[in-house]
Design goal:
Blueprint (H helix, E strand, L loop, with lengths): L2 H38 L1 H9 L4 H15 L9 H18 L3 H18 L8 H11 L4 H11 L3 H5 L5 H19 L6 H22 L28
Helix pairs in contact: 1-2, 1-3, 2-3, 3-6, 4-5, 4-9, 4-10, 5-7, 5-9, 7-9
Length: about 240
């Protein structure tokens, strides 16, 4: 075989490899967006909006979140830990009526501590902790964002049109969805975890009834069996 023929075969092989690689990347490319959108749900749309409609930039950000935190394994909580967190959350809800700003600040601290206890990055690194939570609890993570923003907004800014009492109430309601996700036993706990989950639901429902969060009326349930929480809007006052 002549040298020229060998060189020609090498060039042809290289071209074939390059074409195959390009076709593979092209095939993967269109699927990344839909996959990310399914995984992150509304958080995908928020990322696109934050990047001024640049879907590619948003997808790069979300893909980086998955690379950094996708392998995170959530830790289980001891029953005593779970009960302490539940008691603190119930107390924060009750406090909202008289001191909404302090209640929101406590909810923000509580979510940061609870997420840290479950194995997410430390709450002192809010952005990193939020990014990790968005990978594993995307449907509910915006509640944390809203309550964190409300907790760190100065009172003067709130009076100037930032976050009022109603906004803080809605932030607390949204944040509770993430709290309930994090307070549940980890999925890998198996049968014992499911049993503890049922016990946790019973305790939480009893706690809501004792706290009067349903206005003394028979509790209505939402999809998933969760009881609604509606702080009396007329009672809540700006702190």
């Amino acid at each position: 075989m002549s040298t020229g023929l060998i060189i020609a075969l090498i060039v042809i092989a290289a071209v074939v490899v390059i074409i195959a690689a390009a076709m593979t990347l092209r095939a993967r490319g269109p699927r990344r967006g839909p996959n990310l959108k399914r995984r992150f749900g509304p958080e995908y749309d928020r990322a696109v909006a934050r990047h001024d409609g640049d879907a590619k930039a948003a997808e790069r950000e979300l893909t980086e979140r998955v690379h950094r935190h996708g392998d995170l394994r959530e830790r289980s909580l001891e029953p005593a830990q779970r009960e302490r967190y539940e008691a603190r959350w119930t107390a924060a809800q009750e406090r909202f009526v008289d001191s909404p700003r302090e209640a929101v600040a406590e909810a923000d601290r509580l979510l940061a501590e609870l997420a840290g206890a479950r194995g997410f990055p430390d709450g002192g690194q809010y952005e990193e902790q939020f990014a990790a939570l968005s990978v594993h609890h995307a449907p509910h993570v915006d509640g944390y964002r809203r309550v964190h923003r409300a907790a760190h907004l100065r009172a003067d800014d709130a009076r100037d049109g930032g976050t009022g009492t109603e906004d803080m109430r809605e932030a607390m309601v949204a944040a509770r969805a993430l709290f309930e996700e994090l307070i549940r036993p980890a999925r890998h706990d198996g049968g014992a975890g499911r049993h503890e989950d049922r016990r946790h639901e019973d305790r939480r429902h009893d706690g809501h009834r004792r706290a009067g969060l349903n206005g003394g009326r028979k509790a209505a349930t939402t999809r998933g069996g969760h009881m609604p929480w509606a702080i009396n809007r007329r009672q809540a006052k700006e702190s």
